[in-house]
């Protein structure tokens, strides 16, 4: 098991980075959508 510890650590580190990047992207997208929705605020006339 000791022979694979470097690979296991690298795999977990890579997974943590990928999950962190996904969380950042989702949060940024959510904030952008909220900003767009509040700026929309029904300014256009509805038919």
Instruction: Calculate the mean pLDDT score and round it.
Output: 87
Estimated share of beta-strand residues: under 5%
Any idea what the shape is?
rod-shaped
The helix-and-strand class reads: mainly alpha
In percent, how helical is the residue content?
over 70%
What gyration radius follows from the Cα positions, in whole Å? 21 Å
Instruction: Encode the helix/strand succession as letters.
Output: H
N- to C-terminal distance: 68 Å
Low-confidence stretches: none
Please tally the β strands and state the result. Answer: 0
| Biggest sheet architecture | none
So how many helices? 1
Features:
mainly alpha; 1 helix; 47 residues
Q: How does this model look, in words?
A:
- It is a single chain.
- By secondary structure, the protein is mainly α.
- Helix content is 77%, strand content 0%.
- The protein is built from 1 helix and no strands.
- It has one helix spanning 5-40.
- The longest helix is centred in the middle third of the chain and has 36 residues, at 5-40.
- The protein is rod-shaped and about 60 Å long.
- The mean pLDDT is 87.
């Amino acid at each position: 098991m000791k022979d694979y510890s470097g690979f296991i650590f690298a795999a977990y580190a890579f997974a943590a980075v990928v999950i962190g990047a996904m969380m950042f992207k989702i949060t940024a997208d959510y904030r952008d959508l909220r900003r767009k929705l509040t700026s929309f605020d029904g300014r256009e006339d509805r038919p």
